[in-house]
Amino acid sequence: MQLFVNDLTVIDFSYACTKRGIVGESWIVDVLLSGDLNEMSMVLDFGVVKKQIKAIIDDAVDHKLVIPRNSEKIVLSDSAFNEGHQHVDILSDVGDYFLQSPACAFAQIDADVIDIESVTSHLTKVILSQLPENVKGLEIKLRAEDITSDFYHYTHGLKLHGGNCQRIAHGHRSKIQLFENGERSTALESYWCKRWEDVYLASEDDRIAQSDIQLSPTAMSKLTPDHQFFSYLAPQGRFDIAVPSSILEVVDCDSTVELLADYIARQLKALHPASSFKVIAYEGVQKGAIASVS
After folding, report:
1. What is the domain extent for residue 231?
2. What confidence tens digit (pLDDT) does each residue in 40-95 have?
3. In the chain, at which end, N or C, are there fewer CB atoms within 10 A of the end residue's CB?
4. Cα(134)–Cα(250) distance, rounded to whole angstroms?
């Protein structure tokens, strides 16, 4: 007997990549369970599927920086600065990222690269180990949202958030809709998606001096004049990141989707003072914020 749940959840996370740096991603999760019927004549109660399996997925990868354990260019180590914290050093073709975060903000996967195949294999093992004995098989389908327009991948952190969004390197794959004087502008959408392609979005309020950053000894030896530094304390612990200027945009606000929509609207207004703008900014799949400026 088989039981399926489509659109079970969306995982919003970032992953370390030796080609693209840190990449924000959003994947929709479908699940198919197979097994014997239990005492309630079910493979598994839908309520259990939606709550338990979603909770396992959230704990495993959602709102984390996912790291390929087998990559020699991406190294995770314990922090000497704060108990329960770790460093991640990422060497990539676009620039080198260096981080410190509480250990719960990182997830390691036994793979050379992070992709749908490797994350699917990881989640299948993790979930199966926590399901009842009557469940014999599990198929997980991870898929990106079907977006016919331009989109971008961004990574950020929200220090004021009480949940896992506070982690300094989690992200999203998002589309955007921009209207100038009431008319949709695909040209402006294309511009912003190129501008924020695999970008890290940092808040100016979180900027610190290099002398105050807490990174691994290897990271400190590899810093360049191109790196900029950001840090904050949040309920889960201390978060630090060093980002190359070429893959960074520093905003004058927090990076909630509401304020990012407003930021884009203000940027557009400054470039085109005579026009009015409406911004529909998405944060991953099927959620976001709207800002307008006249």
Report:
1. 2-293
2. 555 565 566 678 889 999 999 999 999 999 999 999 999 999 999 999 999 999 99
3. C
4. 51
Q: By three-state DSSP, how is residue 227 classified? A: strand
CA atoms of 225 and 206, how far apart (whole Å):
18
Whether the per-residue pLDDT at 219 is higher than 80: the answer is yes
Contacts of 128 (CB under 8 A, 6+ apart): 135, 138
Listing DSSP states for 95-156 in one string gives --EEEEEEGGGEEEESSSS-SHHHHHHHHHHHHHTTS-TTEEEEEEEEE----SS-EEEEEE
Distance CA 169, CA 100 (A): 10
Domain count, the chain: 1
pLDDT of residue 5: 86
Maximum Cα–Cα distance across the chain: 68
Has residue 285 got a pLDDT over 60? yes
pTM of the model: 0.95
224 exposed, middle or buried (CB, 10 Å; 0-12, 13-18, 19+)? exposed
Closest CA to 66 of 101, 30, 95, 29: 101
State pLDDT tens for residues 151-195: 999 999 999 999 999 999 999 999 999 999 999 999 999 999 999
* Sign for the pseudo-dihedral over CA of 263, 264, 267, 268: negative
| CATH classification at residue 13 | 3.30.479.10
d(Cα 261, Cα 178) in Å, to the nearest integer?
Answer: 10
- Judge whether residue 289 has pLDDT over 80: yes
Q: Is 194 exposed, middle or buried (0-12, 13-18, 19+ CB in 10 A)?
A: exposed
| Phi, psi values for residue 27, rounded to 5° | -125, 135
Tokens of residue 178, six digits: 């921009």
